[in-house]
Amino acid sequence: APSTKLIMFVQIGSRNQDAMEASFSLRFASRMKGVDIASAGRGDRDDERSRTALLRSQEEVRRLQDARKEDQEKLSKSQAAIRSLQAQVRARAPGRPSVS
Fold this sequence. Notes:
By secondary structure, the chain is an all-alpha fold. It has two helices and no strands. Helix 1 (19-33) runs antiparallel to helix 2 (44-91). The protein is elongated.
């Protein structure tokens, strides 16, 4: 039987702001590693397994996309809070005591 191999390239950024997407990409690649692509076309039973694996992978992609969206929203809120605090610090008049 012929052997089928698939190579998946995952680009990972090294910057801190790339960490979340890198994590999602690595998890997806890890899950895809378990999919048996070589079984495609080997009969109804293997076709059903392939369809099931495809559906699981599609669901995983949707779940990761949703999680990424939630994390991006949290990050955006945190960045807005940081900008607000920075503006407050800049607005303080020199020589005024800081309030804790």
